[in-house]
Amino acid sequence: MKQQDNYRFQVNLSGMINILSNHLYSSPKVFLRELLQNAVDAVTARKGMEHDYEGRIHIELAGTGSGATLMMEDNGIGLTEDDVHQFLAMIGQSSKRGKDLIMEETSFIGRFGIGLLSCFMVSDEIVMLTQSAKGGPSLEWKGKPDGTYSIRELETALSPGTRVYLRCKPGCEVYYETENVEKWLYDYGALLPYPIELRTERFEQVVNPAVPAWIAQPELARGQRNEVLRFGESLHGERFGDFIPLRTSSGRTGGIAYVLPQAVNLHAKKNHRVYLKHMLVSDQAENILPEWAFFVKGVIWSDELQPTASREHFYENEKLEEVRAELGESIRAELMRMAEYDPDRLRHMIQLHALSMKALAVEDGNFYRMIHRWLPFESTYGRRELGELIDDNPNLYFTATLDEYRQITHVAAAQSLLVVNGGYIYDAELMASLPAINAKVRTERLLPEDVSLTFTDITAEERMRYYELTRMADAALQRFRCRVQLKRFKPVELPALFTLSKESSEFRSLKAAEEASPDVLSSVLHSLGSSFNPEAAYSTLYLNLDNPVVARIFMPVNAGGLVNTVEMLYVNALMMGHYPLNRQEMSVLNQGILRLIEAGLAADAQKGGGPQ
Ligand SMILES: Nc1ncnc2c1ncn2[C@@H]1O[C@H](COP(=O)(O)OP(=O)(O)OP(=O)(O)O)[C@@H](O)[C@H]1O
Fold first, then answer.
1. Under 8 Å CB-to-CB from 227, ≥6 apart: which residues?
2. Quick check: CB of 34 below 6 Å from ligand 1?
3. Are 213-343 and 375-452 equal in CATH topology?
4. Which class is domain 455-501+538-605?
5. Nearest C-alpha to atom 4 of ligand 1 is from which residue?
6. Is the Cβ atom of 39 under 6 angstroms away from ligand 1?
7. Å from CA of 36 to ligand 1 middle
8. Is the CB of 88 under 6 A from ligand 1?
9. ipTM score of the complex?
10. Higher pLDDT among residues 233 and 514, named by residue
């Protein structure tokens, strides 16, 4: 080829239609949304021409199973012959935007020029009868998924508007069933300001009730509590006990945030229902409210956000960011208002959704200051509200991890030392920043070593006396990488306390993973384990000489049983600290229990008893 040749891309129309109709949308049921949306846009367009005109949308279902048909009719703007060629026959062409400006704002919902194709998911033909409100003949357009279409003039003139006819494609019967169509029409159109009539062979009714005034003006919702809660239940399918009105300063986005009746996980899927220009865009919108607001389920409307082509999400753009921040501010402001005027309601909400409230408190010092006294924390005094803990002692100790808390908790509780568990998400951060929002409080992070230091050392004379036995106990725990130290501490009922440095904690986790892994991975983990500093990877078992059992095993006459008993104390201390036992430790526990059973049986037999 010598000279440069220019060619034009060829488009395989049936392939394109297949991709658009079958792979863009999450479910074929969206054909109903696309039809409804076109009808709404047609009504909006006609309203722009004739102000005293009333929009109307009518759906008819006939036949059953594979013989079912659906017809959607609107009395909107309709299409002229030119419109049909330009907008129906050209994929990607839409009458609802300027030349190419897909992101441009208009009063219409449609913009991409592909929505109608979704009907091919449920029908092998789209038939449209239309009469333009601008005049001209009434037309019939028939489109097929192979990319062909026909157009003809009708003999009888129709009144302005459009009818779309679909016939059930084999396998799509479910999309023509009355109950489903009725439910989806309600889902998509519950906030539409004009009636959607549904006629079947059995009934004719309006699917969407009149939209209550407090939807458009959410601040009025406070006075209509029961109605608002019932509305939330009919849309979300669950019962709520409380709600917060939402509105941005422009008034172009608003709605109701329903407070979930049960506590939710931080990572639970967010299912906000978002309506764009009165039509449902998504019932699973994730990004419309701030991350911390996971304790509510929203019913949110907007006329300013940009939907993606599948219409199931919004573009993550500056506008969405701004809207999200302002809706978050609505929730925050309502919570602040409650703190002042309705503290019992807020307290109830905090008890149910502490995690959400803590997430917001971490972000917002003022909010934290307002609500901190009601936030619950786990402590060595039990699960308490922060206010109670502060009243008890304004100098609060806290741990930064769960492991540290576990190591400290027995000793601290025994010494009546108040320690807050900072191991759960947000807690350590909140404890550290508490003095900044409440000047009366001082907080300090506590390490396991700090608590261990409150132990009483044994005397030099005792150290000499127990030197040999301590060495034996220490040797017995070598294989567990644990050192033994003899101390005196409270409570005397506690025979032993296990503590773990950061390194030994990591080493234990690595060993546990190694035990549970298949061979190849296990050898990798093993070599990783050998890179640990052997000194630092040791844990410590403190034995309490004030405890009667420990005092007895450290009597020279009992030296024979010392190794077994120390091993058992070690395993017992691990269990008290909620550490999972590895295979070796489990076997120590089993053998110890068997020895106890044997000893019990032997003692019975000696008493002259035993089975007859
Ligand atoms: N009921 C209707 N009344 C009048 N015109 C309609 C109707 N339905 C479709 N049209 C015309 O057909 C065009 C294509 O419709 P289609 O649903 O494919 O795309 P769209 O609504 O423009 O954009 P989107 O893909 O974002 O929905 C529309 O732009 C409109 O001009």
1. 212, 214
2. yes
3. no
4. mainly alpha
5. 78
6. yes
7. 10
8. yes
9. 0.97
10. 233
- Rounded CA-CA distance 34/110 in Å is 9
Regarding the beta carbon of 38 and ligand 1, being less than 6 Å apart is answered: yes
pLDDT of residue 99: 57
pLDDT bracket for residue 270 (50, 70, 90): confident
Q: How far is the CA of 103 from the centre of ligand 1 (A)?
A: 17
Q: Out of 1.20.1050.40, 3.40.50.720, 3.40.50.300, 3.30.230.80, select the CATH number for domain 213-343.
A: 3.30.230.80
8 Å CB contact between 46 and 192: no
C-beta 417 within 6 A of ligand 1: no
Q: What is the pTM of this model?
A: 0.72
Are 122 and 169 in contact by the 8 Å Cβ rule? The answer is yes
Confidence of residue 530 (pLDDT cuts 50, 70, 90): low
DSSP string for residues in 460-516: HHHHHHTHHHHHHHHHHTGGGTEEEEEEE-S-TT--EEEE--HHHHHHHHHHHHHHH
Cβ(112) – ligand 1 distance below 6 Å: yes
The H-or-E segment that residue 198 falls in is: strand 196-199
Considering only the top CATH level, what class is 375-452? alpha beta
How many Å apart are CA 473 and CA 523, to the nearest integer?
Answer: 31
SS3 161: strand
Q: Quick one: which of 144, 98, 106 has its CA closest to 125? A: 144
Lowest mean pLDDT, pick from 68-77, 149-158, 556-565, 602-611: 602-611
**Atom 6, ligand 1: residue with shortest CA distance:** 38
Q: Which atom of ligand 1 is nearest to the CA of 161?
A: 3
Just give the CATH number of 13-206.
Answer: 3.30.565.10
Look up residue 331 and give its two tokens. 């929730």
Of 575, 546, 550, the residue nearest 561 (C-alpha): 550
**Cβ 569 vs Cβ 540: under 8 Å:** no
35 lines ligand 1 (CB under 6 A): no
| Residue 124 · residue 161 · CB < 8 Å | no
Residue 114 Cβ < 6 Å to ligand 1? yes
**Strand 161-168 and strand 196-199: pairing?**
unpaired
Query: Which amino acid residue places its CA nearest to atom 29 of ligand 1?
Result: 94
Residue boundaries of the structural domains of the chain: 13-206, 213-343, 375-452, 455-501+538-605
Nearest by Cα to 166 from 145, 180, 146 = 145
Question: Is the separation of the CB atoms in 194 and 208 below 8 Å?
Answer: no
Please state, in angstroms and as integers, the Cα–Cα distance from residue 291 to each residue in 61, 119, 121, 436, 541, following that order: 42, 36, 35, 24, 43
Give kind and range of the element (H or E) at residue 166: strand 161-168
Tell me the percentage of the chain whose pLDDT exceeds 90.
Answer: 60
